[in-house]
Amino acid sequence: MDIRSYGLPTLFATLLHVVVLGALLNHWIGDSEPERRSVPHIQARMIDLEAFSHQVAPPAPDQQAAEQKAAEQKAAERKAAEQKAAQQKEAREKAQREAEAKKQQEIQKKKAAEEAQKQKQIAEQKSKAEAEAKRKQAELEAKKKAEALAKRKAEEEAKRLAQAKREAQEKAKAQAAAEAKARAEAEAAAAAKAKAEQARQAAQQAAQQRAESVVGDIQGYIQALIQRNWLVPKTARNGMEAVVAIRLLGNGEVDQASIYKSSGDAAFDQSALQAVYRTERFERVAEVDPILFERRLRAIHIVFRPEGLRW
Amino acid sequence: MRRLLATICLLMMTVGARAELVVEVTQGVEAPTPVAVVPFGWSGGQALPEDVAEIIGQDLSRSGFFKALPRTSMLSFPTRQSEVFFRDWRVTGADYLLVGRMIPGEGGRISIEFELHNVLKEQRVIGQRVESDLSHLRDAAHYIADQVFEALTGLKGAFSTRIVYVTAEQLGNQNARYRLQLSDWDGARPRTILESREPIMSPTWSRDGRKLAYVSFESGRPAIYVQYLSTGKRERIQSFQGLNGAPAWSPDGNSMALVLSKDGNPEIYVLDLVSRQLQRITRHYSIDTEPTWSPDGKSILFTSDRGGQPQIYKLDLATRNLERLTYEGNYNARGRLTQDGRFLAMVHRPQGADFTIAVQDLKTGRLDILTQAGLEESPSIAPNGSIIIYASQEGGHGVLAAVSLDGQVRFRMPNRGGDVREPAWSPYLN
User: DSSP class of residue B405?
Assistant: First the structure.
């Protein structure tokens, strides 16, 4: 396991911690003020919202005006004073109303402001909550993400491991299979080879036997020729031995002859060489299969070892 | 495929090289090697006194090692290599061919150039130029024969050696001529080196070939003399009462074995030629005679009838150990050893037969009779051991004859009258 493989996770973890810490810090710092603002919030609740809602009903004056107009026409005069009073009253009322309205408006305004404030607060709260939630969510998500990442990573790792394992297994399997195959093939080949070898050996043996027979024949033939052509020198003694190495050409001609092992007697050695030179050519060697000739008859040793001499 | 074939071939060759076919040859033709000695060319005007090629051919033939091809079988008479057609000579059956030419020089000088060829191998063996003159052509011929012999056998030729022998001529009643003669090994060119009215016996050579020792009765009784061949100077070295005989020079030339009967019956003595000290080495009531040295000078072989009949014994001079060497037949005498010490030539009489020359292989004990039964005597061996010369009888006269060590070649030397006896072969003279 490489130590570097921890690098990225460690970085992530650190980052995550920093993010979480940062979020928490914000939360902690941001919490103290909204708590203090919660005092006007309690005040706002004391205002009657219904009153506000009556005040704002708009169509009623319009309808009243039309009816009033008709009534006024009928009792214009009678009502002139009243009207005037009414106007005055109305003016007062109006003023009152206006004041009321204004008050109302102000209240409303205040209410609106409060509402706005509340709304704002709510919004703030909401946003805060949202932020919190978001943060939490983010945190969660981050966590989740981290977890997921870790999980994924773990999964990936596991997967990778599994994959590696599988691959290794597959590889091993493949290898085993290949080996088995190779072994089988080798065995088959060996068997075939053995069989071929056996056949070859049998053939070779047969050929060998044939070759031996041919070589034996040639051996006898060469011996006979050389014995006929060897003039045993006067210096020859029983027990003397000279070996002449000869090389033949394919047509049986003597290509080279040399003393391979001296008898110690110059005349004896020379006579052995002369026997070969006199023979000059072993005609029957030419009839021998060239490969056999190459193998067995090209180079020959002739041992001159006289027997039955006087001395 | 070709590589495979090549490999197989190579393999076979190596196998072949290891297991060579061996052919054993245990029998052959026991015949001399045929040599063609072509008449030498002569660019001089007058006829030559000697036929050099003829002498060479005869020398080689008489050795028993070779057989000279008769001239009638020759298809041509080349005198130099360029004129030689080996195939022709192969057809005639010659293994070797000797050609030569003689070129006249000033004052009767003659240069002889010869070449020896191996007919079967078609190769020159030796070639030489020999300076001679009209009166020494025979020497030149023997010399060339020696060169050929040595080239082909590895043994030094003995054709330039000499022999001495004694002739006896009855000129009338109580009138005889005894001569000590010296000749070529083949009996040619004899010359008398001592003539006497009294018997001459047992000539023998010093090892350096410069002196002869012999027994002469010229003083009325046997005495041993030494004669220098170059000057003819003589010296009487021993003359005791009774028998003084059978001198034999030791290999180092400092001593001489001889037979003296001064102490009663014939015994073997060794005379120190420097101090003149005499040492008796046999002590037996029977006859001990005919001493000869072993080539190493460490023992003396002699004939003794101490066993009831003459047989050859060997006495070791240092240990005084005596060993009887011959058992076959009822008479074995006058032993002579080859230079390698292996073969003992002797006069041998088989049961119920006459005297022959026989040779015994001291290594195996095998005895071979080399000559027909007669009155053969006094074998003497050529220094190279190839030929034994001996005295024989022909028409009531003593003649010289020779036989090759294997008994295959026998020939008689020319007889110029009188009885010829006791030949002695010289050592190498050059």
Answer: T
Residue B229 to residue B203: CA distance in whole angstroms: 12
Question: Tens place of pLDDT for every residue, chain B, 430 residues?
Answer: 566 555 555 555 444 444 688 999 999 998 999 999 999 999 888 889 999 999 999 999 999 899 999 999 999 999 999 999 999 999 999 999 999 999 998 888 999 999 999 999 999 999 999 999 999 999 999 999 999 999 999 999 999 999 999 999 888 888 899 999 999 999 999 999 999 999 999 999 998 999 999 999 998 889 999 999 999 999 998 777 788 889 999 999 999 999 998 888 899 999 999 999 999 999 899 999 999 999 999 999 999 999 999 999 999 999 999 999 999 999 999 999 999 999 999 999 988 889 999 999 999 999 999 998 888 999 999 999 999 999 998 888 899 999 998 888 899 988 777 899 999 999 999 7
CB atoms within 10 A of CB B209: 16
ipTM: 0.84
- Gyration radius (Cα) of chain B, Å: 26
Judge: B21–A219 Cβ closer than 8 Å, yes or no: yes
Query: Do A267 and B154 lie within an 8 Å CB cutoff?
Result: yes
Task: Indicate yes or no: CB of A307 within 8 angstroms of CB of B13.
Answer: no
Q: Which CATH architecture has domain B162-425?
A: 6 Propeller (2.120)
Domain ranges of chain B: 33-153, 162-425
Residue-number span of the structural domain to which A40 is assigned: 8-52+88-171
Partner-chain residue, chosen from B25, B121, B404, that has the shortest CB–CB distance to A226: B25
Q: What is the pTM of this model?
A: 0.70
Q: Quick check: is A276 in a domain?
A: yes
A82 domain-assigned: no
Starting at the earlier edge strand, list the strands of the sheet with B278-280.
B244-249, B255-260, B267-272, B278-280
Q: Which residue of B has its CA nearest to A234?
A: B65
The answer to whether residues A31 and A135 belong to one domain is yes
Q: Are A23 and A93 in the same domain?
A: yes
Return the CATH class of domain B33-153.
Answer: alpha beta
SS (H, E, C) B95-125: CEEEEEEEEECHHHEEEEEEEEEECCCCEEE
Question: How far away is chain B from the Cα of A195, in angstroms, using its nearest Cα?
Answer: 20
Nearest to B16 among A280, A298, A304 (CB): A298
CA gap A214, A289 in Å, rounded: 9
